[in-house]
Sequence to fold (522 residues):
Amino acid sequence: MSAILEIRHLSKAFGTNKVLKDIDFTVRSGDVTSIIGASGSGKSTLLRCINFLETPTSGEILFHGEDITGKNVNASAYRAKVGMVFQSFNLFNNMNVLGNCVIGQTKVLKKSPEEARENALKYLDKVGMAPYINAKPRQLSGGQKQRVAIARALAMEPEVLLFDEPTSSLDPELVGEVLDVMKTLASEGMTMIVVTHEMDFARDISSHVVFMEDGVICEEGSPADIFGNPKNARTKEFLARFMSR
Amino acid sequence: MILPERASDCETVKFINEVIRILEIYGTSYLRGAGYTLVFALLGTIAGCLIGFAVGIVQTIPTSERDPKIKRYIVGFVKTILRAYVEVFRGTPMIVQAVFIYYGGRYLGVTMDVYTASFFVVSINTGAYMAETVRGGILSIDPGQTEGCMAIGMTHFQTMLYVIFPQTLRNIIPQIGNNFIINIKDTSVLSIISFPDLFYVHKSVAGNMYTYFESATVVMAIYLTMTLISAKLLRLWESKLDGPDTFDLATTDTLAHTSGLYRFTHKRRGWTNERHT
Ligand SMILES: Nc1ncnc2c1ncn2[C@@H]1O[C@H](COP(=O)(O)OP(=O)(O)OP(=O)(O)O)[C@@H](O)[C@H]1O
Ligand SMILES: [Mg+2]
Fold:
């Protein structure tokens, strides 16, 4: 299958603090890539660079073979094709659930309001939030907010969906409902990159696992390799710490 | 005829009679003056808010190293100019600005009538204050809102227009109201360029009839009425923007857009659902 995203020698520094060092990896259509690693290892920064919320210091990001880090690339048009789901939901507080899922379609994709509404309802239904179209974000629980955020991203019909610890700010009993939605998406062939501390999800759902430490990729491979037979000592140590919980 | 028992009672009756007399003669003048005050305070506040939002949006344009140099220079230059505008108009009294602009305009060959000059001064003054309020309001919105917009491909302008401004507006309504109430009172300084507002009427009445205290009482009462009613209306607007505390669940086919059986009441923390049939 063809590569959608190729990250080549990507580095990012905040001042003198080198957060990402020479990151290389490839995402193919239909891949579910889990990025795991200790806190502060640069997982969020990597994801944010991929979506251009941070500007990489050096390196290339190829989207369908085309470098999008160049100066005259339209960042907005690229972002519309690469969805993002945040740890803190970031739903638009001034709009209700339906509005959240419609605005990007009408303003960025220039769809008609009717078409956008129908499309939004389709994806809200998929995440089980269709009955809540009239609710404001402040009236929803964390799990519901995150499901709406996923529907909002899906409604843009992106080619890749990025998740930054989508369940980390949820109460334990709400984690399942969000993971279920993500499992469904994975089984339908959605291309996803997921930063997560949910090792069960990484092991059972993803097709590819990337382990990061101190801004470098220590080890990557299939979930069976990483979880069953890790080669790198640091990977072993990290997994031992996690699995013992 | 009531016979006053004490001198002070006598004074009170005299005072009330005077007030009634000037109201009979000048009632419509007072009302017209109050009308000018209210209309110009309102127009000035609206125009000032528009200026404030425009300045606020420019002052919060992000620039990154990715942008071409030219763009960064232009944005930086415009920001400096706007900064100067804000400082000059916040840092000088409106009464002096009125004189400066009204007479200074003539000096430069721009003749403005009193109304244009007054509208201009109130707007530009309010704009300077609102610019700071809007800038602070924009900065106080969670950066996650902007990132949410960027992540679905919205431009800076769309982000501002559809997501940041509506939330900023909601948050700064108290300050807009404050500015409106200040403008109702402070348009009185425009009488220095003969703007015929309520205070100007007071000055003429008092000058004609030598009834300073009586006229001042009437004018105080009118100003207070206007500000109290405005404050009340602003609070109504606020709660209208907040929308209802509850929402209806769409229980049947959502494509048919019906709302259903359950009403969710949002409490501060957590929420309850109760049946309402
Ligand atoms: N805007 C920023 N400015 C300066 N330093 C930053 C910035 N954002 C992140 N960092 C630094 O980059 C490093 C990596 O942060 P990042 O958020 O990518 O880690 P992470 O792997 O996502 O951690 P976590 O699991 O806690 O979310 C940290 O040391 C952090 O302090
Ligand atoms: Mg993170």
In short: Chain A touches chain B through 44 residues (CB under 8 Å). Chain A has a mean pLDDT of 92. The two ends of chain A are 37 Å apart (CA to CA).
